[in-house]
Amino acid sequence: ATAAGAVTWGATASGEDAEAARRDGHDVLDLAAALERAVVQDALVVVAVPLPAVENVLRALPEGVRLTDVVSVKGPVADLVARLAPHARYVGGHPMAGTSRSGWDAGRADLFHDAAWVVTAEDGTDLDVLADVVGLALAAGAHVVPTTAAEHDAAVARVSHLPHLLAAVLASVGADGGPLALALAAGSFGDGTRVAGSRPELVLAMCQGNRAALLGAVDDALGRLGAARGSLASTGGLAKTVEAGHAARLALENGPELTGTTLDLTSPDALEALRDLGSRGGRVVGLNGSTARALTPRAHDRP
Ligand SMILES: NC(=O)c1ccc[n+]([C@@H]2O[C@H](COP(=O)([O-])OP(=O)(O)OC[C@H]3O[C@@H](n4cnc5c(N)ncnc54)[C@H](O)[C@@H]3O)[C@@H](O)[C@H]2O)c1
Ligand SMILES: O=C(O)C(=O)C[C@]1(C(=O)O)C=C[C@@H](O)C=C1
Predict the structure, then answer these.
(1) What is the CATH number of the domain that holds 54?
(2) How many domains, in total, are found in the chain?
(3) Which of 73, 112, 195, 208 to mutate to test the pocket of ligand 2 (most atoms within 8 A of CB)?
(4) Which DSSP category does 75 fall into?
(5) 273 exposed, middle or buried (CB, 10 Å; 0-12, 13-18, 19+)?
(6) Please, is 110 exposed, middle or buried when counting C-beta atoms within 10 Å of its C-beta (0-12, 13-18, 19+)?
(7) What are phi and psi for residue 292, nearest 5 degrees?
(8) What does the pLDDT profile of the chain (303 residues) look like in tens digits?
């Protein structure tokens, strides 16, 4: 956002991160001063701490601020906001990009380029703040995927939290193969276990914080692994599992064909239209006043 010309400032509980951010020319205050300035300037407050620390930040929040967050689960944050800061004008957010490293130096100005940035569009959402969050995501080079907290949590259980859990399991299985196995580890093991290098506290916060949805995704994966194991043991064949995975990977790489459309954010059914766009695999790619420019899968490409 700073690179896109926005005036920004921040606060962190880490002296080391504060020092590193100041060294890079950013304005770092203490939390109370940062929030006070947000009130004076009617700025958008972005909570970017691990889920277990969200409560502390919300307790410090002044009345009526514009509020978003980047936390990896949305239902628990929405519940905390409703309980601890019901006065906040809150719209949930989640950029779907990151690294397995933590701290200030792990960030880059282009980290969110071409990434999906979830924006929650629940009934009653403040469209003025939603437009702020859309503007932030677009300024960071991302595109916006509107959805609800519940649908977000179900989706990321499959494409983020399960991969983190599988990476942990895979890393342990490989390591238990002993020194020879690790000496031979190449692309498949490296790619499949990269995120197991993430700080365990962050992985625990997002996976345990999305327990119900993650359980469903784990059951699905175990069912497929069980079927593969059964087939390998009985006939020796893995074709069904491998071919289904290959087709799914190609679908991810190719994506659907997208076509342009616009959404009027002042329309009475704007929130419904936004959610519909997200659930069809569409995205907002531009904002001009209250008109959102969007891309949506062509009818014949819809799942
Ligand atoms: N790392 C990723 O790939 C990724 C991607 C998308 C979203 N997220 C989410 O973003 C959030 C931050 O993750 P991260 O990877 O940047 O973590 P991080 O550990 O690199 O940074 C977290 C920062 O929050 C600060 N902090 C912690 N408690 C605080 C408090 N009470 N008050 C003020 N500051 C506090 C820490 O000092 C640190 O500077 C998490 O909720 C995570 O789920 C992470
Ligand atoms: O690329 C990585 O290192 C990540 O783990 C990023 C990743 C993910 O893809 O699961 C991790 C957590 C998020 O909330 C969003 C993105």
Answers:
(1) 3.40.50.720
(2) 2
(3) 195
(4) H
(5) middle
(6) exposed
(7) -95, 135
(8) 887 888 999 999 999 999 999 999 999 999 999 999 999 999 999 999 999 999 999 999 999 999 999 999 999 999 999 999 999 999 999 999 999 999 999 999 999 999 999 999 999 999 999 999 999 999 999 999 999 999 999 999 999 999 999 999 999 999 999 999 999 999 999 999 999 999 999 999 999 999 999 999 999 999 999 999 999 999 999 999 999 999 999 999 999 999 999 999 999 999 999 999 999 999 999 999 999 999 999 976 655
User: Does residue 7 have its Cβ closer than 6 Å to ligand 1?
Assistant: no
142 with 173, same domain: the answer is no
The answer to whether residue 276 is domain-embedded is no
CATH (domain of 166): 1.10.3660.10
Ligand lying closest to the C-alpha of residue 163: 2
What is the CA(229)–ligand 2 centre distance, in A?
Answer: 29
Reading the block at residue 293, the tokens are 């420019």
Q: Tokens 């020194």, residue?
A: 179
Of 132, 147, 162, the position where a domain reaches its end is 147
Segments forming the whole domain that contains residue 25:
15-147
Distance 48 CA to ligand 1 centre (A): 5
**266 falls within a domain:** no
